[in-house]
Model the fold of this input.
Amino acid sequence: VQLQASGGGLVQAGGSLRLSCAASGRIFSINDMVWYRQAPGRQRELVAHITSGGTTIYADSVKGRFTISRDNAKNTMYLQMNSLKPDDTAVYYCNLKIDFYNYWGQGTEVTVSS
Done:
């Protein structure tokens, strides 16, 4: 199983980006899907989480601005990020629980300029 994260880039404050995380390989089922981020000099933190049933959880810092979603037919998770702030600058990582194992994507960098 491999995860491919994409969609990061440089954007001005107030702008939007959409991250994707696609899983490929021998997959029976994908349970939890989670986006984390790690800013320079800071610990990795949970950004958003979506369960197999579609329940979502967000960090307080992104509530109302970010939306996590999943397309089970494509084994893909998304993170729509709106109203981006400089504090959102980080490397974003996807984590998927696939067939009871945890897999990490390679990270995609998001830079928000003021």
